[in-house]
């Protein structure tokens, strides 16, 4: 995700996703340690798996992280998450351009 190509709705989703300290910690942990599966990431961040799932879903919906379901050698399903490449360079001009593309329902 590159900031110059963000629509107004995409910008709102990205900023909303990043406006939570837990989600910032998730992005930081994935950026520093690489892809990780939910249970391990929950332990590292000292957060419950259900709460982590909610935060990961918000980040994924905004296009800031990606997920891939894989089977372990013992047959367990592991959902791995990784940071998606993104850069958001906020400026008044970029915001003006993004605002012109807002839909009537920016909460999508």
Automatic annotation (TrEMBL):
Domain of life: Bacteria
One Pfam family from the record: HTH_20
Membrane-traversing stretches: none
InterPro entries named among the record's database cross-references: ArsR-like_HTH (IPR011991), HTH_ArsR_DNA-bd_dom (IPR001845), WH-like_DNA-bd_sf (IPR036388), WH_DNA-bd_sf (IPR036390)
Start and end residues of each HTH arsR-type domain: 13-86
Protein name: Winged helix-turn-helix domain-containing protein
